[in-house]
Design brief:
This protein is mostly helical. It is built from 11 helices and no strands.
Amino acid sequence: MWMWTACALLVAAYLLGSISGSLLLGRLRGVDIRTQGSGNAGGTNALRTQGWRFALGVVLIDVGKGALAAWLASLVELAPGPVAFAAILAAMAGHIWPVFHGFRGGKGAATLVGGLAVAWPLALVPVLATWVVCLVLTGYVGLSTVLAALALAGFAAVPPVDAARLAFAVVVAGLIAFTHRENLSRLRAGTESRFERARLFHRWRGRPE
């Protein structure tokens, strides 16, 4: 009975993840951001093509569904563990490959953050710190996100090691690297776009004395 409940939860988490914030709000506005900018259905492309208000709504939805998936897992297990982490991964998979939107979605980072906020809030410290520092120094959102996922794996490897958390973090790092493979390719080629407004260190260093 427990196994069937866990399986039903994972299916529900995937379907929940398949509700794309950008595509849902885009329908209300009459746009499909997959036809604009980078073609990605995530928050960064939403910000670049539709503005910060639209992007904020997208992020809130995408973070919320990760949080909800992790919360639903609490109905199956008393403390966050393998089921919660599997539910977060299922929600991320739904976000990346949404069944409701032709399996073309976002990159999964916001949904991951929502899941961590519920199932493993302490992990948000190294994840968000790495993301912010890298973004301020480089202006590369994709690179910042990949390094933040690697920071999660590094944090999970700090003793005492929890096998479920470590396995989850390693899978997440691989998944985030995969969804950002085009960003990494453009970075190697020198054609990756920068978020110039976020390069606070560069702007501060460039100020005249």
